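Journal club prep — side note

Before the paper discussion, L.F. wants everyone to see what a predicted structure for a comparable chain looks like in token form. Sequence:
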Amino acid sequence: MGYDPSADNLAAREWFQDAKFGMFIHWGIYSVLQDGEWVMNNRGMRVAQYETLAPQFNPDKFDAAAWVSLARAAGMKYITITSKHHDGFAMYDSKISDWDIVDRTPFHRDVLAELARECRAQGVKLFFYYSQLDWRHPDFYPRGQTGRTAGRPDSGRFERYLGYMDAQLRELLTGYGPIGGIWFDGEWDRPDADWGFDRTYGMIHRLQPAALLISNHHHLPRPGEDVQTFERDLPGRNTAGFNTMEIGALPLETAQTMNNSWGFRLQDREFRSSASLIRELVNAAGRNGNYLLNVGPRPDGTIQPEFVDTLKVVGQWMARYGASIYGTRSGPVAPRPWGVTTQRADSVFVHILDWEDPELSLPSLPRMVQAVTLLATGAPVPFRQSAEGVTLRLPPRRPGETDQVVVLRLAR
């Protein structure tokens, strides 16, 4: 498919790269079992069993304003929420199916509509995650690698399922105002299937030309996509074992969890520290990528306090050091064992994450350095400059300082 992005789309890509930090939200009826978003597959649940969760899902403490306010307090500029996960359950009022939060639960409220209104009110962009994989739909056939114990008939028409998927995507693209984009997941379940990308991608760009199309297929982007995303990995790395190490020409994003789970899992207590999350956010920015950090709300609609407390600390750091993240691109010095660099206009931000020596040498930069200061205090940092590069004379690190940020002002 030939894809010529519109001016609105190109502007949205620039905004996305400037935004740098977003909140991922995995939430659905699976939270009732408090064992992650894959619980239907992992426990071998049949469709009839799984459907009994919907009448038990009544998140009466859900507060869209509180969620969006938390994202803003953390310094996040956008939210990506699961509109439909692999269980096929829609977290909005779908007219294509009654397998949704309004028709099947006692809650009877459209979560996406409330979030869309609140995001507009607070100036946060809203993206919709949509699973191409569906463990419940009878026409998701032949079966993929997962969802084989759901008890569906061994028949179905995949083309009919794709029509169902496109109809739901049309609902999301026409019923909630301008959105940031569609975040796809699940193609990897049937990697050799004919997904009809030309039709689906064309519809998305036609209905909302500024919406960004992001697909978590773990490969280089295909025509029609606008962002390359990496699941649980920094761009160019593959510690998770399923990401490509190739980096294309599109904006980049890293999606990561705050413990080991995407959806709420009661027994997952391996919470990552605020310092480790800040380090990963900085490392993503230094590799020209955004950082999409996940929360999995509880079945009552609240976000667990461990996540809230950590996000507030991250937000305090962003309030102080955000100038070295927002609106930047990767800097002139490639990532090093000691840290990374970012750049905006004539300012190069040196993020020193792992370095104890009093001096740090940088290679030659594109232009002469006129001044060097600490971002936190504005205090000058002594430096020497030669044809070989720039050497910084660093002050002692403050106790508990996660990232010592030094600003280099380049000559125009």
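L.F.'s comment for the group: Residues 158-174 form the longest helix (17 residues). Keep this in mind when we get to the figures.
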